[in-house]
Amino acid sequence: xxxxxxxxxxxxxxxxxxxxxxxxxxxxxxxxxxxxxxxxxxxxxxxxxxxxxxxxxxxxxxxxxxxxxxxxxxxxxxxxxxxxxxxxxxxxxxxxxxxxxxxxxxxxxxxxxxxxxxxxxxxxxxxxxxxxxxxxxxxxxxxxxxxxxxxxxxxxxxxxxxxxxxxxxxxxxxxxxxxxxxxxxxxxxxxxxxxxxxxxxxxxxxxxxxxxxxxxxxxxxxxxxxxxxxxxxxxxxxxxxxxxxxxxxxxxxxxxxxxxxxxxxxxxxxxxxxxxxxxxxxxxxxxxxxxxxxxxxxxxxxxxxxxxxxxxxxxxxxxxxxxxxxxxxxxxxxxxxxxxxxxxxxxxxxxxxxxxxxxxxxxxxxxxxxxxx
Length: 373
Ligand SMILES: Cc1ncc(COP(=O)(O)O)c(C=O)c1O
Prior knowledge:
Layout: H1 7-15, E1 21-22, H2 33-37, H3 42-49, H4 62-69, E2 80-83, H5 85-97, E3 103-108, H6 113-120, E4 124-129, H7 140-144, E5 151-157, H8 169-182, E6 185-189, E7 213-218, E8 231-235, H9 238-248, H10 257-268, H11 270-294, E9 299-300, E10 309-310, E11 313-314, H12 320-331, E12 333-334, E13 336-337, E14 348-351, H13 357-371
Parallel strand pairs: 1-12, 3-4, 3-5, 5-6, 6-7
Antiparallel strand pairs: 2-8, 7-8, 9-11, 10-14, 13-14
This protein binds pyridoxal-5'-phosphate.
């Protein structure tokens, strides 16, 4: 298999653990292990204390699958497969849903694996482009025009990376229906789900929109536990589940035993886990609202409504790649320029899931005040 470099991940490999101010991470600040264990109930505490480090059940620990199934309204525990991160679930779905010569439609800009893996699997990929001028809105009519007789996979990401936008329920439903009509899998990457600014705008899960729906979830983002490397696929499509299990025999076989139990503990206390994430994001959004108001002549954004990231635009007369590089050298602040997403705009990804944001934002603003007109 030949696959293109994952630009954003190569960028993080170079900078993530080396910079002073990480202002572009997409996850929420990781939970301290001791705090998580303090949430265990009697059953999960016993599972943790008595854990042996053997192989685990290939589709995932039965109790974990049951807990994940509760995040959906139509999914049974047997319709959940646990993977090592959302990344493995995406890799698997693209590889088993697509044959060489098939066609996939992927919302864009996007987390690169959503389109790169489909292409590497031999599919033709059409990108459904979202535009800042339209509030990064999904356009079902435009997306429908991309469908071909070979379309077998339609991929959305809601809440969306990198923009923090969320389609309307009607648009989301319409795209699921387009996939159903085309006989395609509707893969919905929902790794930022449950981190909506208002629970009232939360979309139905992709898996709950129809048998052709396939939700990808993860502990990394809204649940703030990226180090667990636990993700999942939830779908009522039995054929897709079967193929995914057969494929997984060649990737990881089964998930990490400690990570499964820790994920179970977290999901059983999900209200508390999510409240912590929401509190971090809300506090940072208040600072960012003030920042974008003060810096209106230099930066603007479509205010994110969900998730822990946004995709602002540098409107000052300097290319974002140059600005980001000079900012990093001068202040140790890391932004992720749009070029990492293959996007031509003067945008950059901003992450606001970390309590350390205020210090980095202060450095960014001081630098902008010093160097931009
Ligand atoms: C939209 C999206 N999908 C999938 C992933 C992969 O998640 P994980 O690294 O937890 O596997 C990410 C990570 O940034 C993401 O933003």
